Amino acid sequence: MCRDPKRDPHTLCIVESVSDLWAMERSNTYRGQYFVLGGNLSAMLGVGPDQLNLQPLIERVQTTQFNEAIFALSATLDGQTTMHYVHERISPYVENISSLAHGVPVGGELDYLDDGTLSTALTHRYKVA
Length: 129
Known about the structure:
Elements: E1 8-15, H1 18-26, E2 32-36, H2 54-63, E3 68-72, H3 77-90, E4 96-99, H4 115-123
């Protein structure tokens, strides 16, 4: 996959783990490059920046011209904290940085959703054409 010339060399998807990479691949919609962080920052678990693969990521975005970096991290406090921390470090090198959408899943019913999911979906709503 890493050497596949058919993949977009200018788009980078940042994931927590190899299992997240395979989940993205199962969708059959993403055809760019990947970077595996090796986890999330977590004050509760004592995971700091030195325990993640941050330096290789920074070196990669410094030496490769990426048009976009996509964060595909967990929608947890640790995942969002990690995203903001990494964003600060890679934003000088990547112009377009995005994140996967969060909210109501396809086929989801509102009365079964937790308050946080519903709140996020409402906050990030979009205009219907």
